[in-house]
Amino acid sequence: MIWQLSRQTFRAFVSNRLIYGIQVDSPPTFIVGCGHSGTSILLAILGAHPRIQAIPFESGIARSQRRWLFNTALRKFDRIAVAFGKNRWIEKTPRHIRNIEQILAWQPDAKMILIVRDGRDVAFSMQKRNGDLMRSIERWIKDNEGSRAYWNHPNMHVMKYEDLIVDFRGTITDILTFLGEDYDATVENYHQKERKWYADTTAKPDTLSRSDHNQHRNWQINQPLFDARGKWHQLTAEEVSMLEAKAGYLLVELGYSLQNIGEDSI
Predict the structure, then answer these.
(1) pLDDT tens-place string over residues 186-208
(2) Least confidently predicted of 133-147, 185-199, 212-226
(3) Which parts of the chain are beta strand (E)?
(4) pTM (two decimals)
(5) Distance (Å, whole) CA 120 – CA 225
(6) Is residue 258 part of a domain?
(7) How many helices (H) does the chain have, and how many strands (E)?
């Protein structure tokens, strides 16, 4: 529950705050993006930074219309960060991509990191969980279109999953610069610390079904960064054509090339 701290965490908070003077000195930071875009991996990487505490659950705090709950959660997250000896925190709820306006209204100094991934790869990955390729690409479109108005907002940093794979250090340096933090090499070894954020095991599940989704996510954040680009090439030509006919205009706008260039795709 996000509204309760364990006794151990609370004792650590009191000790670090009163004895060692550790306190949160930076604005709340949120990672947003369509599901299956790399939000969990990004959180694990940034949470390995010596000043940054990853909030190890998806809080969904901005999806409520109750501002007092939002503010209560921010205070809890401050305490979690201090309890772990950190000076700031980052929270990740992918569906907060639809609550950007509310977050900035309630917390004007909040920093937001939007991670974007090729919609064809997102749909390919997501349909393994929900069984519906077209519903998956429609969610990708809705989420990313809904965030468009904030792509150039001074409190928003937009990045691509693919850039993280191609240039890890440069991409993470850009994020940390946006946050006012220095690059630290510990982020490169994020996977060496065991995390059980979504499941009680770090083992890879046998399937990618809905029932195994949390275990699969937990396995992923405990692995070295691996290249998951271009998985959509496993789709049939007909499936790719349908995806590009539906989402081609947005793929192009975000800098992705199309396989099937045609009037119906752009």
Answers:
(1) 999 999 988 888 888 888 887 77
(2) 212-226
(3) 29-32, 52-54, 88-92, 111-116, 156-160
(4) 0.92
(5) 20
(6) no
(7) 10, 5
